[in-house]
Prior knowledge:
Layout: E1 5-8, E2 15-16, H1 29-38, H2 41-49, H3 54-59, H4 64-71, E3 83-84, H5 88-97, E4 102-106, H6 113-119, E5 129-132, H7 133-136, H8 143-153, E6 160-164, H9 167-175, E7 179-182, H10 186-195
Parallel strand pairs: 1-4, 1-6, 4-5, 6-7
Antiparallel strand pairs: 2-3
Amino acid sequence: MTPTQVVFDIGNVLVDWQPHLAWAQDMDRAAIDAFMQRIDFGALNLRADRGARFEDLAEALDDPGDRTRLKQYVPRYAMTVPDRVPGTWDLVDRLIARNVPLHAITNWSLETWPEGLKVHPRLAEIFDTLVVSGAVGLIKPDPAIYRLFCARAGVAPEACVFIDDKRDNCDAARGIGMDAIHFTGADALQAGLTDRGLL
């Protein structure tokens, strides 16, 4: 089945996410990296993407300084997403011009999502169906989040091409019947969408 619906991941596909920038005003990069490694920021962020609150995650840390730093993350979140990913918004506008339905499935904390929208308000405007992981308690690559999206959008998996910068997430989408494009840059994405007759 030729896909008719385009389903975007957002972070590092449409919006460049650099979490270390939340602390760039206080520490040099080496100190930030050491802090993020020490608290296993990646794992904590995934818990937030599933619905945990950063305040609660911070309170569980042993070091008072680390607790304070992590509590700064949500208020400073806008600093971590200052830029668009080059080229992909041009493709979004071309898809919109062709009346291709656009959707999104994003691993994103419910707390930081509104902060991201302050920087990139179009994210609240361009998607017919948007699933934010922190709001539903599921994260990619759990197949359940893709099935939830299809149910909410009222579309068959086979009608969708899913775009994500992580191979595991693309593999999970394929596992439920979606087509998928592993995002490596706008030029390759344009070629993939063109091959599928969407551009």
